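Lecture notes, continued. The same structure-token format from the folding unit now serves as the input rather than the output. Read the line below as a description of shape only.
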């Protein structure tokens, strides 16, 4: 097929979808799909209890307006641009309108779908605490319209050379979204509609001015594409092997002390390496902290014993899937093979770290239970955590890990 500006998006999007679907199939088979379904079922079962527990004095309208305003304002665009496009496509930028229009349509469809899922989660909260089911259609319609407008407006800011102006524009959009949603949730005066219309008119003038005076900031668009692509690959690497993933290393000096507990000898080499990788590379530590905190909150909040045990075990299982990806982090780096150490030590040390991290998570998720009364819970959950950590790390991993 002859490569033209008109079919570049079609070819690149086909390649991207084919690769993404392959990764999502592997991610789904890793256990994430089953965990998500179980979490969804638990959410459906205990959502009414959460609504009943929420205090009447809690500012639902204010908090929900801020959260949805932030979510609506978020606007990243996968353009599938490549670094070589600066050389080959910038000379024909005037003919790239169809390419960029297709990119905006794709991103709009994906992000509005995500927004609708979020709105479905919060719709019972809206109907129970803010309004009623009769206005539920407006709860879906207005945020979707705001999101569509936000994406169109945000797209024009990517013509700006100054990143500070893009940030200011985003803050202004967030303020507008939050104010509008709060007005809607609280049933504000209709006179505010004139103010909102004037603000939209001001955004329209600024965006049109930016469109007429500036071409696209290609370096910024390519940098954003690389960042979003890397984010997807890092997420996929938590479940499957991604050979071409570039590691993202963070300088976390405040956690440097964790490796000082090991003697600086060859016997501790792999423990040292994997623990440093867990603390500093990619999103391993961040996901560990988030899942642990969410798990502790969920286990504490669920009212009955069986729900607590299911949620407790489920979060341990989800974490074990994440940590397992750490084993493959260095597999495609040649220097890793130069360690003059037996491969059995590599496997053994990773199992040790895996068991340690799962045990620490199980203890942290158990701590909120100490605030509750119930002798069986005090014994049951730590026992489940200890047994799961040992069986998964010492028995299961010894069979599935391949060095």
């Amino acid at each position: 097929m002859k490569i033209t500006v008109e079919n570049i998006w079609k070819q690149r999007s086909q390649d991207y979808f084919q690769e993404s679907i392959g990764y999502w199939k592997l991610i789904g088979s890793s256990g994430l799909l089953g965990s998500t379904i179980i979490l969804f079922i638990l959410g459906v079962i205990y959502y009414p209890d959460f609504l009943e527990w929420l205090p009447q004095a809690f500012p639902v309208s204010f908090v929900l307006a801020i959260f949805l305003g932030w979510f609506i304002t978020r606007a990243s665009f996968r353009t599938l641009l490549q670094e070589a496009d600066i050389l080959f496509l910038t000379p024909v930028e005037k003919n790239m309108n169809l390419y960029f229009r297709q990119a905006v349509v794709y991103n709009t469809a994906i992000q509005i779908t995500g927004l609708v899922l979020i709105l479905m989660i919060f719709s019972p909260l809206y109907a129970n605490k803010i309004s009623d089911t009769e206005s539920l259609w407006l709860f879906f319609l207005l945020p979707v319209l705001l999101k569509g407008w936000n994406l169109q407006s945000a797209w024009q800011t990517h013509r700006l050379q100054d990143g500070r102006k893009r940030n200011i524009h985003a803050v202004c959009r967030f303020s507008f979204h939050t104010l509008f949603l709060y007005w809607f949730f609280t049933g504000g005066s209709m006179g505010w509609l004139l103010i909102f219309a004037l603000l939209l008119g001001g955004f329209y003038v600024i965006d049109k001015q930016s469109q007429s005076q500036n071409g696209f900031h290609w370096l910024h668009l390519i940098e954003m594409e690389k960042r979003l692509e890397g984010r997807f690959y890092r997420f996929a690497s938590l479940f499957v092997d991604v050979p071409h993933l570039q590691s993202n290393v963070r300088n976390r000096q405040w956690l440097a002390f964790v490796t000082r507990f090991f003697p600086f000898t060859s016997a501790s080499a792999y423990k040292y390496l994997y623990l440093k990788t867990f603390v500093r590379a990619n999103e391993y530590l961040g996901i560990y902290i988030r899942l642990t905190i969410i798990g502790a909150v969920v286990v504490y909040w669920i009212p009955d014993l069986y729900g607590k045990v299911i949620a407790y075990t489920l979060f341990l299982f989800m974490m074990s899937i994440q940590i397992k990806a750490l084993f493959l982090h260095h597999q495609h780096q040649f220097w890793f093979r130069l360690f003059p150490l037996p491969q059995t030590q590599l496997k053994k040390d990773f199992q040790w770290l895996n068991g340690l991290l799962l045990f620490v998570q199980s203890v942290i998720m158990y701590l909120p239970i100490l605030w509750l009364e119930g002798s069986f819970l005090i014994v049951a959950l730590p026992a489940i955590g200890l047994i799961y950590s040992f069986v998964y790390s010492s028995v299961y991993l010894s069979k599935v890990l391949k060095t």
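Point for the exam: The radius of gyration is 25 Å.
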